[in-house]
What does this fold into?
Amino acid sequence: MFVNTGRARRFIGGLVALCVGGALLGACGGKPAPRPVRPSRPAPAYLPAPKSAKGYEVSWRAPSQNEVTRLGPVYAPSHQCPVPIGRLVVLEPTFLDLNGAPRRGTILVARAKAETLGRAFGELYSAGFRIERMDIWAAWWARLDPAAGELVNNTVGFSCRKLQSGSWSRHSFGEAIDINPVINPYSHRKYVFPKHPTIDYTQRRTRGKARVGEVAPYGPVTSAFWRLRWNWGGDWLTTKDWMHFSAPNATGVELIEHDEHDEVGQPEWQPKRQVGAVSAG
It folds into this structure.
């Protein structure tokens, strides 16, 4: 039988090339060479704790009887709050206002969380994060400041109130913080509260760079509270409470509900991802 040796050589050479390149599985009895993997973008990471900045001070004390009386709208015997006033303290951290000037704030929180919250506010101060106001006498839930006729952009902690489900808000335990609520509002579908007429809230997720006082994913605020294993309302699935940070319950999981800001008027629960077994502090 006549054999075309030239064609046979070309066939064998091509077969060897396929084997070497790994494109023909089993041609040489071995495994194909792995394809090069395109390097993926690194996953976002929380910021490391900044070095302590000079000028930061923090202290806490028990509220005086006169202060308890003035706190009537947020702590009244008729509210039957779940924690006694003796478990709350007035935390007084240094913070930077929107112009970058250092000020001393006052915020009512759980005594058991005072030390760790003091460290968290120290991180915000060291990172240069700006807070417009932190005053236990200026409640943000008052839609307007009677004196200025403007929305109160006040950072607050304790507030004795129930959710629409009938359960207590984490604020009622002094274990939740709302930071710059006018800049970081609660939103559900098209509902936004509190809503300032001159602020565009629609580009929050796509703008890229956070505005002054805005809480951003993996920014200094979320990083500081992540280290405490606190939950952030900006991580919720559909509803977004950008201002809100709260300590998890005993199981480490917080169930999130549309609360009194919700225009719908019906409680709607959604699971929150677990961020820690227990809260620090």
